[in-house]
Amino acid sequence: MNISRVREISSSDTAALKGFVELERKLVGSNPLFVSDLDRDVIKRLSGKSAFFSETELALFVASKEGRDVSRCAALINRRYQKAKNEAVGFLGYIAAAPDSGSQVQAMFEQAEAWLKKQGVTRVIAPYNGAIFLGLGLLTGAFDEEPILAFGWNPPYYAEYFAGYGYQPTYPLWSFTIDFSSDKYRSAVKRVAENKAVRVRPINMKQWEADLEIIRQLFNETFKEEWECHPHTSEEFHEFYDPLKLSLESRQMLIAEVEGRPAGLCLGLPDWNPLIRPFKGKHGALQMAKFLLGAPRYNRAGLIFIGVLPEYRGTGIAQELVVTLCGLYEEHGLKEAFYYFVNQVNVRSRRFAESIGGRGRVINHCYDKRLS
Q1: Spatial distance between the Cα atoms of 185 and 187, rounded to a whole number of angstroms
Q2: Which of 62, 261, 309, 354 has the fewest CB atoms within 10 Å, i.e. the most exposed one?
Q3: Cα–Cα distance list, 24 to 29, 132, 196, 200, 248 (Å)
Q4: Residues 6+ apart with CB under 8 A from 277
Q5: What is the longest distance spanned by two Cα atoms in the chain?
Q6: DSSP reduced 3-state for 112
């Protein structure tokens, strides 16, 4: 007999929350490409202690089959996101599921959707962990490749679960690879060398507070039209970037200036997945020491955010930012850099990525569903 049930987990129940967080590793963690989030960080968010969740309501659900937990998810409502988009939208995030547990996942989704609908939500986006900095998107291809940092790895059958329960792959996410030897990239380098009107500088670590605030304001302004973004607070930016301050090279956080005024930003990250993978969610003194020692050495890196204020677009700022960041990676001996992600509907950004030698493909999607 296939006996299944769905239960709601209290975010204030320490033991239950810990089990919720660890469940993903139990279900899919045996795959050598899987990378676990740090348990400490996920618990902080789901317990409501994270700045990212200061205006977020949530409910946690776990489904079991014959006494064994086989799936989990979080139903999330970010009120600041709703206000920014002027829509009663909610999210399903922190999703994990075992194979051959379709009926249990469906029951779990139905209960999560019912909770969201009760709170007034009319549309669900998934997977989305409540804010762009916390993770989004489902891997829908290239399952045998090292996942790009921040996207992670999930099994192929996840997409089948979403498609089977009425979710549409509404948001294709483009990832690009920039070949430093390509003619288009070398031409971009030459054009940047001839552009004297733009100044690109790295973040000043001695003026961390002031420069991080400039980056935050530029981010909020340049990404406000993207579906996945909403205004972020100073507390959120510090929560995300302060732990990286000792490990992230200043030249991976760039500010473009025109006549002394901030005009654009570019943020890069190394692919630390191989470094973090052996931690298996732990974050103690040993893991911190290994991270600090290993962080300066990486084999892959790339651009995760680039934005230019509307009044400065078309002036070469974006090229200057990309070339400056990629120049750092060339110094590290890399032959290419990733550039991700770009929304399917953002044709301008896709064409820009291609103009500097980017080769694009879609291997990640976000899904959505209308609640009747």
Answers
A1: 5
A2: 261
A3: 7, 20, 51, 41, 28
A4: 34, 35, 36
A5: 73
A6: helix
pLDDT tens column, 229-241 = 999 999 999 999 9
Is 3.60.21.10 the CATH classification of the domain at 4-173?
Answer: no
Domain 176-365 of CATH type 3.40.630.30: yes
Each residue of 206-227: pLDDT tens digit?
999 999 999 999 999 999 999 9
CA pair distance 182, 358, nearest whole angstrom? 9
* Amino acid 1: pLDDT: 43
Q: Enter the pTM of the model.
A: 0.95
β-strand pairing of 358-370 with 123-126:
antiparallel
- Which residue ranges make up each domain of the chain? 4-173, 176-365
- Beta carbons of 79 and 111 less than 8 angstroms apart: no
State which H helix or E strand residue 194 sits in.
helix 183-194
For the stretch 256-299, pLDDT in tens is 999 999 999 999 999 999 999 999 999 999 999 999 999 999 99
**Do the domains spanning 4-173 and 176-365 agree at the CATH topology level?**
yes
